[in-house]
Amino acid sequence: EVQLVESGGGTVQAGGSLRLSCKASGLPFITSDMGWYRQNPGDECELGELVSTISSDGDTYYADSVKGRFAISRDNAEETVYLQMESLKPEDTAGYYCATPRPGFGFVTYCSDTDLQPRDYNYWGQGTQVTVSS
């Protein structure tokens, strides 16, 4: 059974930093692409925003909204992926979810890219809340 367990969320003031961790188990981590989404209750799309991904080869992706402020990394020995978040803004407030694509799928960026539900193409963690106060 694939399990993704996030930690590291919290409340910080604008300009502050946080590091999120996602401990994975039950999957071949070293060959798995890993990523982070963020969601807010009012989001029209259940998927939320794809924030960042890191492939098994170490290639990274960042949403424009976080480029230059967030950094994703992975520790294959610890089977953990990290998201270092700097210069946080109030608009970064969200639930942050670790995810990895199910076999046969890749990361989905937009809800409109597929008719499937997020649970159909990703394994998900339970999420960790990040709140940035102004």
Question: What's a concise summary of this model?
Answer:
By secondary structure, the chain is mainly β. Helices cover 3% and strands 46% of the residues. The strands form 2 sheets. Strands 2, 4, 5, 6, 9, 10 and 11 form a 7-stranded mixed sheet that branches. A 4-stranded antiparallel sheet has the order 1-3-8-7, with no helix packed on it.
Structural category is: mainly beta
Weakly predicted, low-confidence segments: none
> Biggest sheet, in brief?
7 strands, mixed
Q: On the 0-100 scale, what is the average pLDDT?
A: 95
Q: What fraction of residues sit in β-strands?
A: over 45%
Number of strands: 11
Number of helices: 1
The end-to-end distance, rounded to whole angstroms, is 40 Å
Q: Could you describe the 3D structure shown?
A:
The chain is mainly β and 134 residues long. It has one helix at 118-121; strands at 3-7, 10-13, 18-25, 34-39, 49-54, 60-62, 70-75, 80-85, 94-101, 122-124, 128-133. The strands form two sheets. Strands 2, 4, 5, 6, 9, 10 and 11 form a seven-stranded mixed sheet that branches. A hairpin with a 4-residue loop joins β7 and β8. The model has no long low-confidence stretch (mean pLDDT 95).
